[in-house]
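The data are quoted verbatim for completeness:
=====
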Amino acid sequence: MMNLMVVKPFILSKMAFPLMKENKWGRIINVASIHSVVASPFEAGYITAKHALAGLTRAISPESAQ
């Protein structure tokens, strides 16, 4: 689950940044559910991955703006 929801978006974002810089335009959109903000019982793996995806999105946003 972490590979699908966190590692792959990280790698794809890393690959897209040079193209976006070259074109001086671009958007990366990551979709997360309510589970990226709150937790539900018996969904630890899914919720952990969604929290990580939201954190990744928040972290790369200011980095990519430079």
Summary: The helical segments are 2-23, 44-64.
